[in-house]
Amino acid sequence: MDLTPARGTRDLLPSTVAVRDHVLARITEVYRRYGYQRIETPALENIERLRGRDGGENQKLIYEVLRRGLEPTVAADTPLSDLVDLGLRFDLTVPLSRFYGANRASLPQPFRSFQFGPVWRAERPARGRYRQFNQCDIDILGEPSVLAEVELIEATSAALAAAGIEGTTVRVSDRRFLSAVAEHSGAPTESWDGLFIALDKLDKIGWDGVRKELADRVGLAAQVIDRLAETITSVQGLDAAKLADQLAGALPNLGDEVLSDLSITAEGLPDGVSWEFDPTLVRGMGYYTGQIFEITHPASGGSVAGGGRYDKLIGRFLGTDVAACGFSIGFERIVDLLAVAPEREAVAVLYESDTPLTTVLEVARTLRADGRSVSPVRRSGKFGAQLGRLTEWGFTSFVHLRADATEPGEERRLGDKAP
Amino acid sequence: MDLTPARGTRDLLPSTVAVRDHVLARITEVYRRYGYQRIETPALENIERLRGRDGGENQKLIYEVLRRGLEPTVAADTPLSDLVDLGLRFDLTVPLSRFYGANRASLPQPFRSFQFGPVWRAERPARGRYRQFNQCDIDILGEPSVLAEVELIEATSAALAAAGIEGTTVRVSDRRFLSAVAEHSGAPTESWDGLFIALDKLDKIGWDGVRKELADRVGLAAQVIDRLAETITSVQGLDAAKLADQLAGALPNLGDEVLSDLSITAEGLPDGVSWEFDPTLVRGMGYYTGQIFEITHPASGGSVAGGGRYDKLIGRFLGTDVAACGFSIGFERIVDLLAVAPEREAVAVLYESDTPLTTVLEVARTLRADGRSVSPVRRSGKFGAQLGRLTEWGFTSFVHLRADATEPGEERRLGDKAP
User: Fold this and answer.
1) 3-state secondary structure of A257
2) What is the mean pLDDT of residues A364-380?
3) Which residues contact A69 (CB under 8 A, 6 or more apart)?
4) Could you tell me which chain B residue has the CA closest to the CA of A391?
5) Side-chain half-sphere of A257: how many Cα atoms within 13 Å?
6) Do residues B117 and A103 lie in contact, with contact meaning Cβ atoms separated by under 8 Å?
7) Rounded Cα–Cα distance for residues B359 and B341 (Å)
8) Distance between CA atoms of residues B319 and B316, nearest Å
């Protein structure tokens, strides 16, 4: 029988879980300090809630769940969609929007949400890409001011640092800035979505590739593309201190609020957070409405965290807009970057096949009373070889209970390598 | 738009999650001391692995997942099962068996597994019964001796006590004892499964109900039923000290190993663990092969934990039998019993609409540096009413930042009730 996990999913062994738990505990402690409270939503959502929510490509990747109580044979011409009523969530933002709509009367205003949990996407499996993976999101709901952005960036940077990810850079832009650039370049409004999608690929395909896509696929005129590239290039690598002035100069149509929000972000972030304005930053989702941000780390190809403001998403569930801003840590990516197991102390109680089990149990109990992790293991094979195996398995010391022992032998450390 | 979670599932609000996290942390700490290591398996398993595994009723409750890449319209006479390739796990034991088969070369021998995670069953929703719920299991794989049983019972009792569930009683029986009773009563081997299922209902339907079911549905003769009832009644409420002798007297066909295992369990459990032999204990699953156990608590109708030895289950995946024994805490049930929130300290930084945001951020940062949980909240409405809301939301103190403040006001405690 095939014992491998379902395609694209994986088993997590104890050493992997230990790293993940360690990282999560560090992140959780930071988010607690920043006032975030953990919530949980179910893995399954009604299928119509998952569809058509600006989830972009992710909606095509939904695992769909069969209705219960169907006949064992499907009638002719049944649309597949008639057989489905639930789906596995593909992110934590759509469920959060529903959750907030359903529960906001019992929640603080603003509400600082922390979510950690699995999501599912039926993507083509690839190295480091799984069909079930965990997301790690903080969101501030009901806070219209840029205070939310600054607090999210600060908390996420602190959480990454606590997890051991140092030397990160925060890249910030604003969807309203991108709209102003598009307008300023003379691109028609209906082309903006395509324009942003093309621009999002800049770091992968360069300006030549972006220009080609803007011409061929988005259908922009050469002079529009020139102006676009010129405007963006003119505000790349700006000094934070001059940012507002230079943006205002380059884009007369940019709203004062955008500039003031960027200034507050610049001023409000603590000294330890290294950040830059990145006019090429787009982010994939259609639902962003204000500042957008990513955190990059030299050791990681892509970003290690990303987020932004999405003031219109909850309104689609609730009928009333709710200011919302979130930041998601790429949990799977950062545990891959770290992959260093936390220290573990573990004692093996080695006993012979004729050591009375009650003696084994008592010795284990005594050692556990000191808070130590203790496992009885029966003696087998050559002593040295068994000690080697214990070391491999992560035990750090052992006691040996002979059959006639009245007292356990002295506790001895296990070496780092098999003897 | 309907904002309620999918039928039979639920959202977990921060106060609920806080209780659950607190209980889980206590349990995890105890299980760490007992040498258990946490693993994770994917929520989705190939559907054929979930079917036909002695999962009893649970197999009928599987959420089935549609294959990807199907045509939008189903062809005539398609069997429903052709459309499905994955299912959501309905317990953690079947995935553990697969996991162990796939990974045992990298695992300690014996392997002490700890699992905590969601499972899904499409049951009729009822009060306190959910379609997604968490299981909390420890298992010892590769330990044939009754040391496993004693250690599992001891660890689970300690975990429940640490979580705040005191005054529990462990009920122990053995599937081999039940088989000996059935044989001794003269019930034909092929009737045993039905016999056990009927006996399992004793606490719900009483002896009259069980007798009727044994006669009508299992088809046992009156004298067989009499002998069965008599044997079981004769060994109810036995004193632990006399248990082995009295069982041997009542059941001459009972194997010595069963008696010796029960004696070691009796002797090996620490003084703090209150336990009794319960000859009416059956447990629902078909896969048990040795001792079975449950833990009851006066405040809970059913059991708060259950488990047993299942030496044949892993063999069905692996082709080779592996000794296995497990104990599962009814996590959802015990958090309902407890439902006491852990202490939480949380500071609100109240600021006016014209307090500079940089000042707000700095004050929050200073308070957080001491490890405290801090959330900026904008002043709104009447001051007293807002303090009342802050208290309701779980804040324990606040500082007030006036617009012209150069220093934050003094920190003040919030009362337990709105002022």
Assistant:
1) helix
2) 94
3) none
4) B108
5) 9
6) no
7) 33
8) 6
Q: Which two tokens stand for residue B11?
A: 């959202």
Nearest CA in chain B to A88: B65
In contact, B109 and B115? CB cutoff 8 Å: no
| Interface contact B368-A68, CB threshold 8 A | no
B82 and B71 Cβ atoms separated by less than 8 Å:
no
What string of DSSP letters covers A293-342?
EEEE-TT-SSEEEEEEE-TTHHHHHHSS---EEEEEE-HHHHHHHH--PP
A24-38+104-115+134-338, CATH topology level: BirA Bifunctional Protein; domain 2 (3.30.930)
What burial letters (b/e) apply to B47-82, b meaning 16+ CB within 10 Å?
A: bebbeebbbeebbebbbbbbeeeeeeebeeebebee
In this prediction, residue B297 carries a pLDDT of 92
Residues in chain B, how many? Answer: 419
Considering only CB atoms, B42 lies closest to which of A6, A64, A357, namely A6
- CATH superfamily, domain B346-413, is Anticodon-binding domain (3.40.50.800)
Interface A:B, Cβ pairs < 8 A: 275
| C-beta of residue B63 within 8 angstroms of C-beta of residue A86 | yes
Q: Where are the domains of chain B?
A: 14-39+92-338, 346-413
Interface test with B, best of A53, A88, A357, A367 (most B CBs within 10 A): A357
All residues of chain A having their beta carbon less than 8 Å from the beta carbon of residue B162 are none
Query: Closest chain A residue to B105 measured between Cα atoms?
Result: A393
Nearest to A159 by CA among A38, A275, A29, A274: A29
At B232, the amino acid letter reads I
Q: In what order do the strands lie in the sheet with B346-351?
A: B373-378, B346-351, B397-401, B412-413
Name the residue with tokens 């560090």: A26
Strands A132-141 and A324-329: antiparallel
- Would the CB atoms of B73 and A77 count as touching at under 8 Å? yes
Q: Is the pLDDT of residue A25 over 80?
A: yes
Give the tens place of pLDDT for each residue, A214-241: 999 999 999 999 999 999 999 888 887 7
Contact A374 B35 (CB under 8 A): yes
CA closest to A46 among chain B residues: B6
Whether A323 contacts A311, CB under 8 Å? yes
Average pLDDT, chain A: 91
Chain A neighbors of B264, CB-CB under 8 A: 357-358
| CATH match for B14-39+92-338 among 3.30.930.10, 3.30.2010.10, 3.90.230.10, 3.40.50.300 | 3.30.930.10
Ranges of H-type helices in B235-350: 243-250, 256-268, 313-318, 331-338
CA distance A179 to chain B (A): 26
Q: Which amino acid is at A74?
A: V
Integer Cα distance of A407 and B4 in angstroms? 61
Q: What is the DSSP string of B25-75?
A: HHHHHHHHHTT-EE-B--SEEEHHHHSSSS-GGGGGGPPEEEPTT--SEEP
Q: What dihedral angle (degrees, nearest 10) is formed by the CA atoms of A158, A160, A164, A168?
A: -90
Q: How far is B267 from chain A (nearest CA, A)?
A: 7
Q: Which residues does chain A have within 8 Å of residue B44's beta carbon, measured at their own beta carbons?
A: 6, 9, 63, 120, 131-132
Selected for mutation to probe chain A from B31, B32, B120 (highest A CB count within 10 Å) is B32
* ipTM confidence score: 0.92
Nearest chain B residue to A109 by CA: give it. Answer: B377
Contact between A14 and B33 using a beta-carbon 8 Å cutoff: no
Please name the residues in contact with A107: beta carbons below 8 A apart, sequence gap of 6 or more: A100, A141, B13, B14, B393
- Chain segment B250-309, per-residue pLDDT in tens: 899 999 999 999 999 999 999 989 999 999 999 877 789 999 999 999 888 789 999 999
E strand or H helix that includes residue A400 = strand A397-401
Q: Across B223-337, where does the E strand assignment appear?
A: 275-277, 291-296, 303-309, 324-329
